[in-house]
Every structure is written in structure tokens, then in C-alpha cells.
């Protein structure tokens, strides 16, 4: 009988949100997973930087999803259904985001003048102030990436992601709900 080695221990926690990734026995990322691993790492890092900066700016209850939702509220308001479509999430999930933002004073719900059954979500003064900070922080985060990889490197990264998203969308390799989200068309 061949003695099997014990499974690796659960990865060590390296901060309050992340765990070290268990790498294969060769000590590297498994072949074919580097793109996904790097994209997930980049998104998590950017999300944490964004959250930390929003907290430092006095908006401790704003996470990336909330920030994106706020930036997608039109000047004349947006319905939860439209916001959900723009974010690539269900109406119910968008409703939860809106409820959070309304409780925190970033948005308010008003009757829709075109549809009595619908409510329009509009930004409050606090919401508009937050959106200005969001745009500033996102530009700064993008600037940091440009500083890290250079203008050509950032341009190539953005162009490659746009082309990849476009090709996957056109090839039907993106779920229907996601294909409707605004960011697949960037």
C-alpha cells in the first residue's frame, strides 16, 4: 500500500481579506491559469485600495459595487431595473444595493413621472460628493497602474481586455445577463 502524503495545510492568511494561494508542487502557478490568477489578484488589489481610499475620504460604507452603482445613476435618475442591467446583476440584487445607498444617504427614491409603478433613484448631495471622490480615486488608481507598467503597457492592457471582451461577447461565451452590462461594451 502506497502511503499518501497529507494534504497541504490551509493557506496562511496574509491580510484581513486574502489568503496565500496554494501553488502546485512545482512552486508556480499552474499552466493555463496565469491570466485568471493575475486578473483576480489585480481586481482584489484595486478593490482594497479603492475601499481604503473611500474610507479615508469619509465614505467608509462605500465598497466597489456601491461606487460603480453611484457612478451609473443618471442625472435625471435611474430605475433599479436599469441600474441592475447596467451593473450586470438582477433587479433584486440591484434593489439591495439601492437600499444600502438610500439608508446611508447617497440616493433617494422618487416617483417616476413616466411610470407610476416605478421609482427613480436619484443622487443626494452626499451622493454627488461621493461620486466626485470616486472619479478622483479611480483616476489616481489608473495613474498608479500607468506608472507601474508605462503608458504603452497600460494602453496594451486596456486594448487587449476590450478586444477580448468584445470577441467573447460576440462569440456567445458570456452569459446573457452579463452581456447586457455596460462594461462589456467598453
TrEMBL record:
The answer, when asked if Calcium is one of the entry's keywords, is: no
**Pfam families xref list:** MarR_2
Task: Tell me the InterPro entries matching this sequence.
Answer: HTH_MarR-typ, MarR/SlyA-like, Tscrpt_reg_MarR-type_CS, WH-like_DNA-bd_sf, WH_DNA-bd_sf
SUPFAM superfamilies from the UniProt entry: Winged helix' DNA-binding domain
Q: Keywords assigned by UniProt?
A: DNA-binding, Transcription, Transcription regulation
Superkingdom in the source lineage: Bacteria
| Residue ranges occupied by any HTH marR-type domain in the UniProt entry | 32-170
**What is the protein name stated in its UniProt record?**
HTH marR-type domain-containing protein
Which organism encodes this protein?
Yinghuangia aomiensis
